[in-house]
Amino acid sequence: MITSYQLDFGLIEIFEDYIKVTMNEGVTVSPKHNCVLLEMVEKHFKNKAFLYLTHRINSYAVDPTIYLETAKIENLIGFAVVSKDPRQKKQTKLEKAFFSKELRRFDNIESALQWKDKLLKKNHKPIF
After folding, report:
1. What is the model's pTM?
2. Domains, the chain, with CATH or none
3. Tens digit of each residue's pLDDT (9 = 90 or more) over 59-75
4. Where are the alpha helices (DSSP H) in 48-108?
């Protein structure tokens, strides 16, 4: 891990090629949270491909329209939802309808990170 930020709505951890977010219990994720994400992207992933990983260990709500804006982040290659909660399968399907990039749910972080590596390899564009 490169660094982390404990914010009022959750914990943001920055890694070499992904950002891991663990929202606090009871939060409602809304478009205002995108401003924070954009700041993190600008600071840590400027001109560098990365994955957004949400570790859903707490119960919270997501306004799915947030994904319309999140998908506009050019260097975001995908969105991984990590949760063993079976209700997250339905939630992830709903969220995917609003997100124009890759979005998948995983039971564990290791599987999500393997997927990230595949996406990075697939999205790698050689510089000439």
Report:
1. 0.91
2. 3-123 (3.30.750.24)
3. 888 888 888 889 999 99
4. 66-70, 87-96
